[in-house]
Amino acid sequence: MAEAYQKKDSTIGAILKRCFEEGLLEEEYYYGIIEEKEYAPVLDVALSEIVILKNYIENPYISTQHGVKGESHDTVLFVAENNSRNPVVNMSKFFDLWSSVNVVLGDFDDFYYAYLKMIKSVENECKMKISEIKAADYSRNEAFILEKISEFSDRYRDNDYYTVLLKEAYDAYFAKKNKGKAQACLKENAVYGVLAAYRLFYVGCSRARKNLAIVIDNADISGFKERLKSKFEDIGFEVEEM
Predict the structure, then answer these.
(1) Strand, coil or helix: what is 101?
(2) Fewer CB in 10 Å around end: N or C, the chain?
(3) DSSP states along 54-104
(4) Are 54 and 33 in contact (CB under 8 A)?
(5) Nearest to 61 by CA among 139, 116, 108
(6) How far lies 164's CA from each of 95, 110, 229, 234, in Å?
(7) Chain segment 171-206, per-residue pLDDT in tens
(8) What is the model's pTM?
(9) Left if phi > 0, otherwise alpha if psi is -120 to 50, otherwise beta: which for 236?
(10) Is the peptide bond before 87 cis (omega within 30 degrees of 0)?
């Protein structure tokens, strides 16, 4: 059973059949599942997909800011800062994204989870974290890594989140494929750090009942300062530069 469980091409149906054949499932229970039409799509799901879901549930990446949930104040001062430690918060890249496209939380969540799923599939194949991959590991798994990166790029090449957050790294990898550039394409925080910043920004700013002031370091937005200024003005903010 352990061997069947570890095979990446095993399906739920195949595992159930193996359990039945080895006497781990009663006949009535087994046939009650495989003969039920509603279960048919589930039986074809690869076990590797369940493993990815299990790993995520045991180590979730998204959380809400419960410390301020439900609180509100007449005046809120939101200081927008990056944080490179856990949890990573890339406020600068969020402002770059937010001032360029219409950010929708549900769509952003979907994009992140698709990206995370792709990363986990590579880690499962390589049997190690992306950050631990060495040159020899990359060479041994290059075909699979290239396949997954290419599939993700083909699927999301016209997606705004991909364009702003990942396209530069992906273009660099396709131009010259190597370990370092592959790791840049599989860097979870490239998306998660921006999503975390969006959630923090939304929660923090939504606490204001009357007055909201946002403080941003000019150095953090130097490449798109005017665009961000226009974004804030368009939604009713008065922008003061110091």
Answers:
(1) coil
(2) C
(3) HHHHHS------TTTTT--EEEEEEEE--B-SSSPB-HHHHHHHHTTS---
(4) no
(5) 116
(6) 11, 16, 18, 21
(7) 999 999 999 999 999 999 999 999 999 999 988 888
(8) 0.70
(9) left
(10) yes
